[in-house]
Amino acid sequence: MALLRRSLAAVAVLPLLTLAACGYGSESTDDSSKAKVAAGAQKVDGLGSVKIGYFGNLTHGTALVAVNKGYFQKALGATEAKYQVFNAGPSEIEALNSGSIDIGWIGPSPAINGYTKSKGTNLRIIGGSASGGVKLVVNPKKIKSVKDVKGKKIATPQLGNTQDVAFLNWIADQGWKVDAESGKGDVSVVRTDNKVTPDAYKSGSIDGAWVPEPTASKLVAEGAKVLLDEADLWPDKKFVITNIIVSQKFLKEHPKAVEAVLKASVDTNKWINANSDAAKAAANAQLAIDSGKALKPEVIDPAWKSIQFTNDPLASTLNSEAEHAVKAGLLEDPLLKGIYDLTPLNNVLKAAGESPVDDAGLGVQ
């Protein structure tokens, strides 16, 4: 089983220290985000609680809405839904490994890295959540076309994260060269936390960014322009941006609880896709609860439109993203067989009268 380069693993430790200092990874305790337990409700699998993790990004909109509208709690009955909010993939993988969370919403690169580093023993991807919502936004005074990106300073959220890998792959496709680890080359790749990227743009220390929503739309609100929507680079304009993962131990011991959370996710996505404006408002309300600040209309409106909420994990695109990481030199050729277990999700979809989803040959035996 291939392993991540030691340097990437070392860099991944840094966000953990930053997160601890900033308070990320803390529980969401606001009672307004919890649904009332129905009278006579029973515990699922006899569990007192299920611990669910997600990011404060719009690309995690399924989780944001499910928390805010009480879908998780409704599906879990008398089993309490507990929540933990993260700002970076490595910290969420660490929480899953330690048992601090049971199930999480996360990007494809952290899921791939976590699975690879554990030699396929720690997690399974059990469903999809979202596609799209990633853009290359630039300073229009400095960058007017793709060729102008050469020689400029472009931010990505973190070395080896999903957007970083996508940008490095795009750079290579232009025929330009960049050292993946240092970020130096024909383009300067500046790893910058999404929380500070807008300030970095305003100060002029970066010329643009390849980032997820709502960071992309925050930059546009500051005068940046969208140069490229990553969806345009993918077949059918679809690529996985958010997966649902579970610890293998929890999946084995509590399958009914896993199906309950997946049912909540499927029900939430159905509601989101039928009630876009109300869902956007619910996601924004939960962001305000989790971060203390809601997004302005000029940010959330375009950001929300660029994201597709789907139960399909788009497994073939995950395999492509792994290949992009290998191409960039950030990952040795990974063995991803077994990373998916879509049986619980397909059980839920069948019960809902919906079509099953496919694991692209990367499922458990």
Q: What does this protein structure show overall?
A:
With 365 residues, the protein is α/β, with parallel strands linked by helices. 42% of the residues lie in helices and 18% in strands. It contains 14 helices and twelve strands. The chain has helices spanning 6-22, 61-69, 71-76, 89-98, 108-117, 162-173, 197-203, 215-221, 248-253, 255-274, 276-291, 297-305, 315-328, 343-351, and strands at 27-28, 49-55, 80-86, 103-106, 123-132, 134-138, 153-156, 188-191, 208-212, 225-229, 240-247, 307-309. The protein has a seven-stranded mixed β-sheet, sandwiched between helices. Helix 6 (162-173) links the parallel strand 7 (153-156) and strand 8. Helix 2 (61-69) crosses helix 11 and helix 10 crosses helix 11. The longest helix is centred in the last third of the chain and has 20 residues, at 255-274. The two termini are 17 Å apart. Residues 1-24 and 29-34 have low confidence and may be disordered.
